[in-house]
Amino acid sequence: MGLTEKLAINPKVRNRILILDVERVNGITLQHWWDRKDLQKRYIHHETVIREPRTTIVCAKWYDQPDVMRFTEWDKGGRGQFLKRVHGLMARADILVGHNLDNADVPWLVGDFHLPREGHKHRPSLPPLPPFKTVDTLKVMRSQFKSGAPFKSLDALCKLLGIPAKTDVYDPEAMERAVAGSVEDRVRLTDYCEGDVIATQGLYDTLRPYIKNHPALFIDGKNKLTVCNRCGHEAEPTPRKYVANVLSYSMLRCTNCQGYTRLSIEPERMSIVRGV
Ligand SMILES: [Zn+2]
């Protein structure tokens, strides 16, 4: 079992898992200057901003559904309808999956849902999202592989692992043209975003055995102690013990993804022992 095999989540899992990716238009600022080098370490003051970065495209896919949903600022209904639809989708998700999701897509979208963006007239009025868990595949790479995986971008990982991914080269001017009305650029950028969603699901399936802290998956009527937390298949006892500083725990291994879990509750070990 290795990184080049993909392992699907048990179809009986009831959590709603949403794979998500966004594209944005960048910000524009006006700067006063005497000399070109003046701007080398210049901080962007909000008084000089004529446009803040904002999300313009969101593509998302339910893990167990084949279709990728496409949402854009230029859809019928404009930015208000766009954000409302994405918000409604995220409000129904138990787990969000994405590459660099925790430091990019999620905070960006939360900003888009609740704050006006300089340079766009829309003023959002959406309620706070209900709580959700996230799986950030970039964080998985960082924590589990560190410098053992020198290239951690979605593109680099997909090429390396043979995961089908986008082929288009990202052109930063394309979003400017799309926002201004270019149909060709709108379609190409949304296709690019959709490709990233599919690639992210591929990476998520590939990395699953290494996602130690995956949010718990639940299956109706199943003994939760023997369900693998990352793929929902049955985990069975192994002869190995997980050895912590003082206590040791029974260890289980998933029969599907071969990821390990440990049982933290063991009645025969309830006495409290600490090193002194
Ligand atoms: Zn598993």
CATH architecture of the largest domain: 2-Layer Sandwich
Unreliable residue stretches: none
Fraction in beta strands? 15-25%
Give the cofactors and ligands. zinc ion
Q: Overall mean pLDDT score?
A: 91
Number of strands: 10
Terminus-to-terminus distance = 42 Å
Q: Which class best fits the helix and strand makeup?
A: alpha+beta
Radius of gyration: 22 Å
Q: What assembly state would you assign to the polypeptide chains in this entry? A: single chain
Outline:
This protein has 276 residues and is of the alpha+beta class. It contains six helices and ten strands, in the order E-E-E-E-E-H-E-H-E-H-H-H-H-E-E-E. 29% of the residues lie in helices and 20% in strands.
Main features:
276 residues; alpha+beta; Nucleotidyltransferase, domain 5; 2 domains; five-stranded mixed beta sheet; three-stranded antiparallel beta sheet; binds zinc ion; nucleic acid binding; RNaseH-like_sf; RNaseH_sf
